[in-house]
Amino acid sequence: MKRVARRLLAACLAAFAATLAHALVVTDERGVAVDLPRPPQRIVTVLPSLTESVCTLGACDRIVGVDRYSNWPASVRALPQVGGGIDPNVEAIVALKPDVVLLARSSRVTDRLEALGLKVIVLEPKNHADVRRVLDVLGRVLGVDDAQRVWRAIDASVSAAAQSVPQGARHVRVYFEVNGGPYAAGESSFIGETLARLGAKNIVPASMGPFPKLNPEFVVRADPELIMVGERSAQGLEQRPGWSRIQAVRSGRICRFTADEADVLVRPGPRMGEAARLMATCLAAKAK
Asked: Can you list the domains of the chain with their CATH numbers?
């Protein structure tokens, strides 16, 4: 009996030690320390860039629910949707019994989810350094070795795209419209940082923030030589008051990206290298 008891005790101690080995604490963007007893096996992601990052890190099979805008890779389109990123459906999230919920700082349901006992990690990358840091956090959460391999691939792809931009297309003054409003990508955003690496000059200074809402007259006064915009918000662009005077409009130097391309461009995650190639192609074709 003593031998059996010792074996049971040894087994319990081994299991406890294994649990301790996998337990971790991560600090999210609120400065909140979130403790996880083990790598989560049921994950809800409520931000497309986080969905894409988790999948690229090899953990797509652990995602059990996503926001309505997560559409890449194609496999996530079959997952249950929990609504939009800002106001997702709390009941739908709870019903999925997630080990952890990954969402943006802008989400309004963080406190409610935590009050219901769910683990919540807030992550919202806005620049290149943020993307690298978020990948590191996700790698720790998922128990993935060398999560920075994804960042290295992104960085190398952006550098390759920059090398492809002809000298004559550099220093072009660019206005990048994220969506109607208009909201723009400023110098301090991940899009603005990519444009800078491609040699372009952003008309929206870092002092205005990463994604400021602009007075349309600001764009008229800045008079960009090239406009990058998704086709969803480009309708009627030339008819906006005063915009017919803008150099880019007068010369037809407007890159209109398809809906799929726009998704790639505005998501700070593993497809940023592809986004850089899209912007480089635009610069080469339109900035002549």
From this structure: 22-145 (3.40.50.1980), 165-286 (3.40.50.1980)
